[in-house]
Amino acid sequence: SPFPLLRAITRTSSVTGTPMKTPHVSLRVSSLRVSSSRTLSVVTAAASREGEARSTPHNPPRICIVGGGFGGLYTALRLDGLSWPAPTSSSTSQQRTTSSALSKANITLVDAGDRFVFKPLMYELLTGEAKRDEVAPLFADLLDGTDVNFARASVTGVTMEPDDGGIVHLDDETSIPFDYLVVALGNKPRTEMVPGARSSCLTFSSLEDVDASIEALDLARAAKATPRVAVVGGGVGGAELAAAIATRDGNAFDVTLLCRDPTGVMPTSPSQLRDHVSGVLRRLDVTVRAGASVTSVAGDGEVTLSFGGEADDETYDVVFWCAGQEPATTPVSSLVDGDNSLPVGGAGAPPLEVNPTLQATAHPRVFAIGDIAQVASDGRGGGGGGFAESRTAQVAFQQSDYVA
Ligand SMILES: Cc1cc2nc3c(=O)[nH]c(=O)nc-3n(C[C@H](O)[C@H](O)[C@H](O)COP(=O)(O)OP(=O)(O)OC[C@H]3O[C@@H](n4cnc5c(N)ncnc54)[C@H](O)[C@@H]3O)c2cc1C
């Protein structure tokens, strides 16, 4: 990586100082164990019809985890690895119980994709330094040997039942009843801020984004010896991406990093880190335009900037949008306000507020972790409780341990 210092910092646990392991190191990989979401919903639907008023969970309890990223995948694995009481004759079938000795939970992990994506390594996939299976191993392989069920589907909504569990709705029109829900749907790029950002820019947040980026860069290279590439957004993500593109194909791209802040890259980071990153970008011939605020992007790569109050138009062959992230669901705050539904999708959503135990304040059987979660600071949830606000893999990873 062009950012050894930055990578060392971001890949090291902020609490323990322990470097994070890549999934192929930390998880066992062998043969296949996946069930379709349709099978799952058939199995669990019968249980959901057992009664209306539910104050105790089923035995075994049904835990549904939506989102199989750092937070969700590791929650499933932690839960699976816990020491559960052996099933008794009275708890071998799906039934309610008042006993505290719950059998091993029925754990279901739902994700829209079939691969876990180790996002910090996506840049290495772009530069060709890492292989697809290393960066994004199949859930089927990662979950083999566990009792975790996997459903590949997009979550379209969640219906809550007061003081109880609820139902996760999927885009294949099946549903998964649960006693406990862990929401770990992560973030998505925020592209509604500026006209054209969504329709005319590439983003870099998912495996599909990496594929689209490689295709666009290859096409640009085929058309021109030195294509011009703009990366909008001077945060860590924009700086990393600009550096990765600058090193791709033997420095074949003319890369410009457009930073809104007049002081340049990563304005909220410590000065030592900023100096280091600025030095790396200089060595890679990345042009850093500090104080360049993008006001619109057109389909032909024309970027309109406000630069020191003056409007300016520049044309690029490829434009990346790395200026902001937002939660993957909306309006997640409805859970906190006591509504009984959790629609998924849309733009401009606030994060899901949770109390310091990571439970949604109005639904104690709903937990949220990772990028999508924010600990309430207005007193409803008991204050910030000292939780990190940063949206990082380490935070999601550590929260998975805690929530399990
Ligand atoms: C390019 C890049 C580089 C990064 N580098 C670093 C780094 O070096 N260090 C660091 O600490 N952090 C880094 N991060 C941030 C880190 O990856 C995130 O903070 C972390 O992944 C958050 O984990 P999560 O579980 O909340 O969400 P994610 O890991 O994003 O997982 C969310 C999952 O939910 C699924 N999903 C979303 N919506 C739906 C739906 N409707 N239905 C079903 N499934 C859905 C997605 O498919 C995804 O698998 C980076 C992020 C990016 C994008």
TrEMBL record:
Pfam families (UniProt xref): Pyr_redox_2 (PF07992)
GO terms under biological process: aerobic electron transport chain; phylloquinone biosynthetic process
An annotated Gene Ontology molecular function: NAD(P)H dehydrogenase (quinone) activity
GO cellular component: chloroplast
Parts forming coiled coils: none
Keywords: FAD, Flavoprotein, Oxidoreductase
Domain (FAD/NAD(P)-binding) ranges: 62-399
InterPro entries: FAD/NAD-bd_sf, FAD/NAD-binding_dom, NADH-Q_oxidoreductase
Domain of life according to the entry: Eukaryota
SUPFAM superfamilies recorded: FAD/NAD(P)-binding domain
Keyword hit for Oxidoreductase: yes
Co-factor requirement: FAD
UniProt cross-references to Gene3D superfamilies, sorted A to Z: 3.50.50.100
Protein name as annotated: FAD/NAD(P)-binding domain-containing protein
Organism: Pycnococcus provasolii
